[in-house]
Amino acid sequence: MKRKDLFVALSFAVFAVGLGTVVQKTSSEISPQDGANFAMMEPAAGEEEPAVEKTAAPEEEVQTEAADIANSVLSAETAPEEQAKDVSSLSDVMGGEKSTQITPAAPQIDVNKAMTYRSYGSDTALLTIENFSAYTCPHCARLHNAAFEQLKKDYIDTGVVRYVITPFPLNEPGLQAAMLAQCVAPEKFEGIQNLMYENQTRWAYDADPKKALFDLVRFTGVTQDFFDTCIANQDIQEFVMESVRHGSEDYGVTGTPTLVVNNGKYTIRGIVSYDKLKEKIEAIIADVKK
Fold first, then answer.
1. pTM
2. Of the residues 242, 253, 280, 289, which has the fewest C-beta atoms closer than 10 A?
3. Which helix (H) or strand (E) holds 82?
4. The CATH number of 111-288 is which of 3.30.70.1530, 3.20.20.100, 2.60.200.40, 3.40.30.10?
């Protein structure tokens, strides 16, 4: 018999003996502390209420029955089906109900959607800008916080630019953040992205950046199970790392942020302000329209 089974059987036997002592007390002898240690259990819907004797068994009977059951369970000769009956009987002696272990359903992540680049703007826009960026990169945070909203207003919403967020993590915390951004529903992406960039110093450089990141995003409805399941998903991780390969091998990206325009025909590097970004975009628009 396994050591775990021995331990459980002995524990039940000891508890049953103690219970026999408790039931001998009159109601006036049971202290508030005693009452706090026992909770009434109602039978589940559809189940019959366990049979209860009208009078409590004497202490000697409870001790004897518990000991007999424990000896039966501890015997290496006892067949598995008989052990199951014995444990059930011990539960009856203790007056308890059989517990049911309920395993919560795994959080649902749409892996196909997670393995699609997030983008803004029309597919027919004059310019397609791929932003190779990292959520732990200070310059990426500066560019996003200073320029994104105005870029969206001036060029994306007007149909001139299609803006693609292409993850290019530089370290493990950046990889986890990129995976999380891909895992959340597309309609929640912008909010998560803004939150991570605007609060970058609160999580990216923390002694435990993984925990700090979850503490930041949990207020958006991201649960611990969702978070853990997302960053453990190998397909999503490979998708993000393929994005890094795509940037480095296809476009020669070596740092972030790097903006690749129209499949590599133009590249914008080292920009952290909207004025400088607008200047570059206007020059590219003029060249494309020639």
1. 0.64
2. 289
3. helix 80-94
4. 3.40.30.10
